[in-house]
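Now for one specimen:
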Amino acid sequence: MMGVLHINRENKISLDSYAEHRKMDLTSGQFIYFKVKNSWIPVMIKYSPESGRWCFCHMENININGQEAMVRDFYDPETPDSQESIRQ
């Protein structure tokens, strides 16, 4: 799922896909892909209680809000519901 990262007033982060008309809430420590020009860079997002803000791990100086990002669907053959749980 590709979309734009948004941080709401409650300081929660989500990925909004306008093309798919879907919204996915993200959690601290989640692995996503961050778009830089024509490339997708794998990163982990984290929430820092000390600073009270969200950031990309090891790229703290990049503003997350409004950045284009992607979450890839995965399938674990040991867990048949794994594809469904990502889509909710």
